[in-house]
Each structure stands twice: as structure tokens, then as C-alpha cells.
């Protein structure tokens, strides 16, 4: 069993896509082990995306991620890190495979509806960033 962090970004929440995204996870045998809605501060968003701090899109990305409510989830399942990335599709929605969340709903390379951890190391950091162990249900 593996765990990963998923975020339904502010664009996904404001467009009423929470149910649709969660449905896709559940339909694909992914268990929601923790879920909550948060409104990230700019500082929290900067800490979360610290690996991207030298990128030209860092300021805009952290403004966007702190612009409104987001849903953070711990997903659990076999190979859930790669499974979630398959369901999300490529970061750039123009390159995302048909039927993926980003191909179906993203409007922009930044406003791409969802985030998912890209490795076991980032999953451990990202889950710990938003959840303590009491909030994750076995
Ligand atoms: P995410 O999977 O959350 O990881 C980093 C985020 O930065 C990415 O999704 C996009 O929202 C954003 N991003 C990545 N590349 C670019 C880019 N070239 N221009 C703007 N935003 C980007």
C-alpha cells in the first residue's frame, strides 16, 4: 500500500469539481484516507512549492494556490502515486491524455485543477505538510 497527497486546486473547487475528482479516485479503487478543505496562506503555498522557488512561475503559482479554498487529500492504494498521476494527466493540459482530469477540465498550465505527489519522497513531505497522523484514517 502506498500513499500520496492530492490537492483539488482553487480553480477546481470554485468550478464545482470536488465531487467529479473524488468520484474518479473512488471509481479507480483509490481510498480517501484523509480529506479537508483549507485556504492556504501565501506563506504556506510558498513552503509547499519550495522546490519550484527559482522558477519564473513561482510567484504566480503561489498567488493562485492561496487565492481561495482548496481540498487536500491523502489517497491510499497500490501504486497510488503513479495511478493518481495517470488519472490527472500531464501538467500541461494540452499534452494530457484524453479522459484525464486535466484534459477534461484544466484551462491553463497553472490552473490545472489538481496536484499529485510525484515520488514517495515528495508524498512523505507533502502529506506531512498538511496532515498529522491522527487525521489519516487506517
Ligand atoms: P503541480 O503539479 O501542482 O506542480 C507545480 C505547478 O506549477 C503545476 O502543477 C502548475 O500548476 C504550475 N506550473 C508548472 N509549470 C508551469 C508553467 N510553465 N507555467 C505556469 N505554471 C506552471
Describe the protein in words.
The structure is a single chain. With 138 residues, the chain is α+β, with helices and mostly antiparallel strands. It is built from seven helices and four strands. The chain has helices spanning 10-14, 18-27, 42-48, 58-65, 80-88, 101-105, 120-130; strands at 2-8, 31-38, 70-77, 114-116. It is globular and about 35 Å long. The N and C termini lie close together (11 Å). The relative contact order is 0.25. The model has no long low-confidence stretch (mean pLDDT 98). Adenosine-3',5'-cyclic-monophosphate is lined by residues 52, 57, 61, 91, 109-110, 112, 115.
Spell the H/E element sequence: EHHEHHEHHEH
Q: What distance separates the N and C termini? A: 11 Å
Structural class call reads: alpha+beta
- Strand fraction band? 15-25%
Helix content: 25-40%
Q: Helix tally?
A: 7
Mean pLDDT: 98
Counting DSSP E segments of at least 2 residues, the number of strands comes to 4
Main sheet summary: 4 strands, antiparallel
Widest sheet, order of strands: 2-3-1-4
The best one-word shape is globular
Provide the low-confidence segments as ranges. Answer: none
Alpha carbon gyration radius:
14 Å
> Which hetero compounds are present in the coordinates?
adenosine-3',5'-cyclic-monophosphate
Structure keywords:
alpha+beta; binds adenosine-3',5'-cyclic-monophosphate; 138 residues; 4-stranded antiparallel beta sheet
Amino acid at each position: 500500500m502506498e500513499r500520496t497527497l492530492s490537492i483539488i486546486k482553487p480553480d477546481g473547487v470554485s468550478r464545482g469539481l470536488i465531487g467529479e475528482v473524488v468520484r474518479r479516485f473512488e471509481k479507480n479503487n483509490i481510498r480517501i484516507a484523509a480529506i479537508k478543505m483549507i485556504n492556504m496562506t501565501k506563506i504556506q503555498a510558498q513552503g509547499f512549492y519550495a522546490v519550484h522557488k527559482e522558477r519564473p512561475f513561482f510567484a504566480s503559482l503561489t498567488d493562485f494556490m492561496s487565492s481561495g479554498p482548496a481540498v487536500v487529500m491523502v489517497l491510499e492504494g497500490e501504486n497510488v502515486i503513479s495511478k493518481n498521476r495517470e488519472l490527472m494527466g500531464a501538467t500541461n493540459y494540452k499534452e494530457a491524455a484524453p479522459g484525464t482530469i486535466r484534459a477534461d477540465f484544466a484551462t491553463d498550465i497553472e490552473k490545472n485543477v489538481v496536484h499529485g505527489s510525484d515520488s514517495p519522497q515528495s508524498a512523505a513531505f507533502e502529506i506531512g505538510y498538511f496532515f498529522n497522523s491522527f487525521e489519516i484514517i487506517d
